[in-house]
Amino acid sequence: MKTCTKMKMTALAGAMVFTLACGYSSKPAPATSGNVPAIAQLNPNAATAGGAAFTLTVNGSNFNSNAVVNWNGTAMSGTTYVSGNQVMAPIPASAIAASGSIQVTVTNPAIAGTGPYGGGGTIAETSSPVMFTIN
Fold it and tell me: Residue 24 and residue 67: Cα distance in Å, rounded?
């Protein structure tokens, strides 16, 4: 009985060594922080309540090619990447129907990892808000 137990233990140890040596216990590299976008200026930075739709130009830094402008927390579809320092977003007339202050941010969405085991991606990063005024 002792020989059988020894053989089982040896087989189990061999399987563990083989599994570890092949990398099956490796974990994916954690997602890293990408570039945090920063807004320097909005153009225009104000609008008249009840006015027409317009294009908002956001100047700043660290905008990725898939960056999205957020209008009061809502991602604006149709955001256009111009450069790492500028993105533009269409703002519909319905978004400026009433007076108030709107928070504008830019988000660089997460990018899935492509490294071994799916690692090496980035997490989503959002800029600090800049206020847009509707008079």
Answer: 35
- Token pair of 14, please? 């061999």
Q: What is the widest separation between alpha-carbon atoms in the chain?
A: 89
Our count of domains for the chain comes to 1
Quick check: pTM over 0.70?
A: yes
Residues 76-99 have pLDDT tens digits of 999 999 999 999 999 999 999 999
List the structure tokens of 78: 């149709």
CB 49 within 8 A of CB 134: yes
Q: Give the tokens for residue 120.
A: 């090496």
Domain residues for the domain of 115 are: 29-134
Quote the tokens at residue 85. Answer: 């320092």
